[in-house]
Amino acid sequence: MKESLKALLELLDLEQIENDIFRGRSPEESRQRVFGGQVAGQALVAAGRTVPVNRPVHSLHAYFIRPGDPLVPIVYTVDRVRDGRSFTTRRVKAIQHGKSIFTLSASFQLPEEGPEHQAGMPYAPAPETLPTALERLTPLFGERAAQEFTEQRPFDLRHATPLSYEAVNDPELRTSEAKVWLKADGELPDDPLLHVCLMTYASDMTLLDTVLLNHGLTWADKRTMGASLDHAMWFHRPFRADDWLLYFQETPFAGGARGLARGQVFTREGDLVCSVMQEGLVRVAK
Questions:
Q1: Which pLDDT tens digit goes with each residue over 11-55?
Q2: CB atoms within 10 A of CB 88
Q3: Quick one: which of 251, 241, 255, 161 has its CA closest to 214?
Q4: Catalytic residue among 204, 209, 242, 275
């Protein structure tokens, strides 16, 4: 297992300090704020630990309220909103310095049978045929910087479409869609909640990049800044985060210094297992 994945699993293993109160920490990195996917994943862990294991999560809705401070722990308080016969609802608040930085509502359901249909999986080359993130980033940033960047990522990402960094000087590469194969970089235990929480973490890694890709912008161009504002996910079927998953992303709108992006996650067999929506702040200096 890759060291960065081991570190992420430790971050998701929250400390319980009281009934329905948990404490999480952030990695020792030189970040100015806590990564949004980390807070969302930890909050879902806190909610899931108060729910029977036979009720998997089927949806979450989250708001990023304040930037998280990576230097201090995050306290997660869980409100047991409802425990029904079929559905269980939890509300989680993440607190730092006495203030809420993030809120999450999650719904869990006892498995049931019902009508089934799904959207088709878009075509993408097999992940094994695509260059690794290191191979893709080295020509852009140099081997050392690319190595440092990829070592910090707990997921193996293979882009089947252009990177925003590649589209800066080539308008023909700009598009409103992105296809990324991803999987956790190591073998994981058979814990369904863990796999869902890891996908929650990963869903925030590339989604807003789709907005930038459409406009020839990057987070490294020294004039573009952004942050996640809200995030919603729906989990349709069980899946494993250590198997290859195709993350199909698109952006239907940008305006008012905000960008909207949506995603669908498919297994290699074509099963739609997860849907994602996110709005983020995208500001460009004049």
A1: 999 999 999 999 999 988 767 789 999 999 999 999 999 999 999
A2: 21
A3: 251
A4: 204
Among residues 203, 228, 249, 264, the one annotated as catalytic is: 228
Identify the H or E element spanning 106.
Answer: strand 99-109
Summary mean pLDDT of the chain: 94
Give yes or no: 278 in active site: yes
Q: Point out the catalytic residue in the list 38, 105, 249, 278.
A: 278
CB 5, CB 186: distance < 8 Å: yes
1 with 187: CB under 8 angstroms?
Answer: yes
Q: Is 16 a catalytic residue?
A: no
Return the amino acid letter for 112: E
Query: Cα separation of 1 and 116, whole Å?
Result: 36
| Global pTM exceeds 0.85 | yes
C-alpha angle 174/175/177, rounded to 5°?
145
Distances from the Cα of 6 to the Cα of 22, 43, 75, 186, 188, angstroms: 20, 19, 22, 9, 10
> What tens digit of pLDDT does each residue of 214-254 get?
999 998 888 999 999 999 999 999 999 999 999 999 999 99
> Catalytic annotation on 228?
yes
pLDDT at 28: 80
For every residue of 152-170, DSSP letters joined together read T-SEEEEESS--HHHHSS-
Burial of 119 per CB tally in 10 Å (0-12, 13-18, 19+): exposed
Supply the pLDDT for residue 40.
97
